[in-house]
Write a structure and sequence with these properties.
Distance between the termini: 22 Å
CATH topology: Rossmann fold
CATH class: Alpha Beta
Radius of gyration: 18 Å
CATH architecture: 3-Layer(aba) Sandwich
Oligomer: single chain
Bound molecules: zinc ion
Strand content: 5-15%
Length: 276
């Protein structure tokens, strides 16, 4: 790692990420440039903002390339499908994620839905661990084109246990094995403190479906707890996905909601031998 001599006027220039990437833990938003070019691979609109909104905003502000890929339009993300039939919710969530990413990074965060270029939307709730050949090719091509230094996605447990989350974790592994370059792969996680303080709350709101396995602090590659303007920006981006977030914030209250979403944690994916 070389010490940056960047001046304010070239902060947003195309930095050579390879000069700044290192694998020391990221514990403040100012340290996010260590991650270099960032590619997030997620299952549903809102996964990216809940798990990495502050990280994405900091990376974009530092002039890093930031790309977010979403596998589905999240059209089944409702308890009220009569009011929100899938086609309607797909349209709404497709717009919401664009607005949310604009809150985080203006026009500097790139986004795409997997399958769009083939005209095949992946169906929310139906992602299979074995991707179709076209899906794997598409994700591999994105990895080759973006050439990320860091890839963010779910771990094999899907963070909440959701089958779509587990599927995109598996898809990312397969695509990375086929890609030309091997970036750092980081899996979203939570801490024991978060599970202690909020785990039962989140689980209760989700009919007990969510399961959160905490990671020890010493294992974390990203250990961010947002505050001040950073958490305010993340809250604004979450509110831009109101179809998924408004009822939750209303149910728990703004102050608790802020505390629940302030943390963003990632651990290195285990290596082929199971070591981190
Ligand atoms: Zn999700």
């Amino acid at each position: 790692m070389t010490t940056s001599t960047a001046t304010p006027t070239d902060t947003f220039a195309d930095a050579d990420a390879a000069d700044t990437v290192d694998d020391r833990p990221v514990r403040t938003t100012a340290e996010v440039p260590r991650l270099g070019t960032v590619l997030g691979v997620w299952a549903h609109p809102d996964d990216e903002v809940y798990l990495s909104g502050g990280l994405l905003a900091a990376a974009a502000a530092a002039g890093q390339r930031v790309v977010v890929v979403t596998a589905t339009r999240g059209e089944r993300g409702t308890d009220d499908p009569a009011t929100w039939p899938p086609a309607r919710l797909a349209r709404v969530r497709s717009r919401e994620i664009v607005s949310s990413l604009a809150v985080l990074g203006g026009d500097r965060i790139e986004h795409r839905f997997l399958g769009d270029e083939q005209g095949v939307c992946h169906l929310d709730g139906y992602l299979a661990p074995e991707p179709a050949a076209g899906t794997l090719d598409e994700l591999t091509a994105i990895l080759d084109e973006v050439a990320p230094d860091t890839v963010l996605t779910f771990g094999p447990d899907g963070m909440t246990g959701h089958s779509d989350h587990r599927a995109v974790s598996a898809w990312t592994d397969l695509a990375l094995a086929a890609a030309r370059r091997r970036p750092r792969l980081l899996h979203a996680t939570v801490t024991a403190g978060w599970v202690r303080d909020f785990g039962s709350l989140v689980t209760a709101m989700d009919d007990g479906k969510d399961v959160f396995a905490p990671s020890p602090a010493s294992s974390l590659a990203v250990d961010l707890v947002l505050s001040g303007d950073a958490v305010a920006l993340k809250l604004a981006a979450l509110r831009a996905q109101a179809s998924q977030t408004a009822a939750t914030e209303q149910a728990v209250g703004a102050e608790l909601y802020r505390a629940v979403v302030a943390g963003e944690w990632f651990r290195p994916a285990p290596g082929p031998d199971g070591a981190s």
